[in-house]
Amino acid sequence: FEVAHNAKKPFTVSSEHQEIEVLGTIFNVTNYPGDRIVETVLKSGSVKITYQKGRGKKVKLTPGNLSSFNIKSSKIKTKKVNVNDYFSWRSGFLSLETNSLTEIMTKLSRYYNFEFTIQNKDLANQTFSGKLELKDDIQQIVQVLRETTEFDLQIINNNIITK
């Protein structure tokens, strides 16, 4: 979201687990069904987040910070991050920094609209760093992953399976 501040017309983003009052800003929200963590990253300006299951706890973010909310435990954490990693999709690439294969495949599946299965648990936790060009189609992404790893990826219908 990229929102200009207007005190007479406040802009609010509501989801199942949080409400974000926008105070003139650029921010990113990650909140998908099935996720156990909801994240809000602030690039500029400020936002005030009210967590529904966090007993209405409020967090005001400053630029360069991330607030994460664990849906099961209701724990809230904030930390300083490299915001470019969270906004890279807007520039056409996915920035990875020690992300597990499960995290990578989850992000790619949302972007390209496919399902994935990782059959090997050790492989699911293996981490990767680098950049993936999102202008490429999923077959090209799979080919890049094949060339940089020691496992096999297959595309069957709309499902990517690792072995």
Description:
The protein has 163 residues and is an alpha+beta fold. Helix content is 20%, strand content 47%. It contains 4 helices and 12 strands. The chain has helices at 83-87, 101-112, 121-125, 138-148; strands spanning 2-3, 11-14, 18-30, 37-51, 58-61, 65-70, 76-80, 93-100, 115-118, 127-133, 153-156, 159-162. The strands form 3 sheets. Strands 1, 2, 3, 4, 5, 6 and 7 form a 7-stranded antiparallel beta sheet that branches. A hairpin with a 6-residue loop joins strand 4 (37-51) and strand 5 (58-61). It starts with a strand and ends with a strand. The model has no long low-confidence stretch (mean pLDDT 83).
Could you give a quick summary of the protein structure above?
This protein has 163 residues and is of the alpha+beta class. The protein contains four helices and twelve strands.
